[in-house]
Amino acid sequence: MSTKDRIMDIAEDMFLVHGFDGVSVRDITNAAGANVASVNYHFNSKRDLYREVFKRKLRKLSKERMGQLQKAFADKEAPTLEEVIRSIVSIFLNDFLSSDDSMKLLTILSNEMSETGVARDIFLEESIFPMHKLVRTNIKKAYPRLSDEKVTLCISSIFGQIFHFVRARAVIRRTVGREYDSAFIKDLIDHITDFSVRGIRG
């Protein structure tokens, strides 16, 4: 493995755990068995290294999620609004709940959605825009009376619910009194889908 790839792999692990501000260049190079100058040589700066790591991670994940969504939509000749939304919720909720890395990435994504996000433009270009286009197209097919603005707001609301039920697991467990087992996750998918469909149809 090249020094550049080794630095990127180590940096990805460390950024996922500690975020951009919680990791120094020296932390990364020490763990990678490289010198500080190698980061400047390959990436120019810690900021550019972070952006390259983030871009690589998002491209991989976006390709996987886009493939899952395209397959889910293609499996139905003319999917209903409920089927479209259920596919979105099921894929993303299960993904974010499936591993610690997904949870850590969600935390980073939340930070990148702020005005001060170091890689916000990459997040938009590599993930949000292509995913939004695919989801918007299929929601419009299933429910054509919605305006583009309304569809965009609905998509934001759907993902907002997904993020809430993932990030607030500790609170949900206490307030609802259930563990996040397969039965409860299925109930959450049903709830978000039903709530979203009813909201869209008014």
Give the second-level CATH assignment, the architecture of the largest domain: Orthogonal Bundle
Element pattern in H and E = HHHHHHHHHH
Q: What is the CATH class designation of the largest domain?
A: Mainly Alpha
Q: What summary fits the major beta sheet?
A: none
Runs in which pLDDT lies below 50 for 5 or more consecutive residues are none
> What is the total domain count?
2
Estimate what percentage of residues fall within beta strands. under 5%
Helix share of residues?
A: over 70%
CATH superfamily of the largest domain: Tetracycline Repressor, domain 2
Instruction: From the alpha carbons, calculate the radius of gyration and give it in angstroms.
Output: 19 Å
Derived from helix and strand composition plus strand pairing, the structural class reads: mainly alpha
Number of strands: 0
List the helices and strands and how they pair.
Elements: H1 3-18, H2 25-32, H3 36-43, H4 46-74, H5 81-98, H6 100-112, H7 120-142, H8 148-167, H9 169-176, H10 182-201
